[in-house]
């Protein structure tokens, strides 16, 4: 299938905001997700957004959705060293099959 | 409780061994999934079980054999694996399959095939 695209790497300084971008492929996806994966661990659900929303805020996390451009972003405010991880966006395609983005490795510099 | 547990955490096996991976959830979810994840890559779907029946097999080789003994348990039986099968194997569950349901993941089993 077509790839869900993400930038591979992002470095930010502690306390700054991080913005992780994702371009997905299926315009009929009803939900879009962000997962976090720390080294050697499974995937932790961070947040999700319903496709009829433009924005969702959850504490330090803000998700923006542009359906026209099939663009999803995750903003992490006041980024901490504990936020260093790989972040995957995911879309649902036909049959509730999740397709994950290529993953963005976030490094937070103290 | 949104916990999915997996055992063992790590597994090393030879190409002639037979082993099994186990996954358990007690959230009342009726859909369970196996994914394979290679280093620095996204998870790739292997199998989907819906109401204890296999609903999706993503052309996985027969040396991987899934089993769903009941709605809380999912096993992955391994036999005659190849070194390229070394990966992190992730289990997930969701309320149902076929809808837009959030999937919750276990911590994974790190498999090394010698």
What does this structure look like?
Chain A is mostly beta strands and 110 residues long. Chain A has no helices and eleven strands. In chain A, strands 2, 4, 5, 9, 10 and 11 form a six-stranded mixed beta sheet that branches. A five-stranded antiparallel beta sheet of chain A has the order 1-3-8-7-6, with no helix packed on it. In chain A, a hairpin with a 6-residue loop joins strand 4 (31-37) and strand 5. The model of chain A has no long low-confidence stretch (mean pLDDT 91). Chain B has strands at 4-7, 10-13, 18-25, 31-37, 44-50, 53-57, 64-70, 73-79, 87-94, 104-105, 109-113. In chain B, strand 5 (44-50) and strand 6 (53-57) form a beta hairpin. Chain B is 0% helix and 56% strand. Chain B is mainly beta and 114 residues long. The mean pLDDT of chain B is 92. Chain B starts with a strand and ends with a strand.
* Most extensive protein-chain contact, per-chain counts: A-B, 24 and 29 residues
Number of helices of chain B: 0
Instruction: Give the ordered list of helices and strands of chain A.
Output: EEEEEEEEEEE
Sheet/helix structural class of chain A: mainly beta
Main sheet makeup of chain B: 7 strands, mixed
Q: What is the radius of gyration of chain B?
A: 13 Å
Q: What profile does the largest beta sheet of chain A have?
A: 6 strands, mixed
What is the H-and-E element order of chain B?
Answer: EEEEEEEEEEE
The general outline of chain B is globular
Provide the gyration radius of chain A in Å.
13 Å
N- and C-termini, Cα separation of chain A: 39 Å
Strand content of chain B: over 45%
Mean pLDDT of chain B: 92
The rounded distance between the terminal residues' Cα atoms of chain B is 36 Å
What percent of residues of chain A are in strands?
over 45%
Low-confidence stretches of chain B: none
Mean pLDDT of chain A equals: 91
Provide keyphrases for this structure:
heterodimer; A: 110 residues; mainly beta; 6-stranded mixed sheet; 5-stranded antiparallel sheet; 11 strands; B: 114 residues; 7-stranded mixed sheet; 4-stranded antiparallel sheet; globular
């Amino acid at each position: 299938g077509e790839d869900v695209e993400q930038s591979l790497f992002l470095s930010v300084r502690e306390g700054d905001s991080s913005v992780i971008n994702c371009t997905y492929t299926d315009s009929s996806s009803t939900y879009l997700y962000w997962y976090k994966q720390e080294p050697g661990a499974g995937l932790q659900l961070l947040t999700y957004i319903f496709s009829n929303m433009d924005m969702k805020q959850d504490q330090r996390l803000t998700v923006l959705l542009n359906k026209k451009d099939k663009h999803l972003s995750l903003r992490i405010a006041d980024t901490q060293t504990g936020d260093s991880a790989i972040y995957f966006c995911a879309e649902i395609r036909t049959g509730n099959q999740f397709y994950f983005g290529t993953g963005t490795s976030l490094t937070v510099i103290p | 409780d949104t916990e999915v547990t997996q055992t063992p955490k790590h597994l090393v096996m030879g190409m002639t061994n037979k082993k099994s991976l186990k996954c358990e959830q007690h959230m009342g979810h009726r859909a369970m999934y196996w994914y394979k994840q290679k280093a620095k890559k996204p998870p790739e779907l292997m199998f989907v079980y819906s109401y204890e029946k296999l609903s999706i097999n993503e052309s996985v080789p027969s040396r991987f054999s899934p089993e769903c003994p009941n709605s809380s348990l999912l096993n992955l039986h391994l036999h005659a694996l190849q070194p390229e099968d070394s990966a992190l194997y992730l289990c997930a569950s969701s309320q149902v399959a076929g809808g837009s349901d959030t999937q919750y993941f276990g911590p994974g089993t790190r498999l090394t095939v010698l």
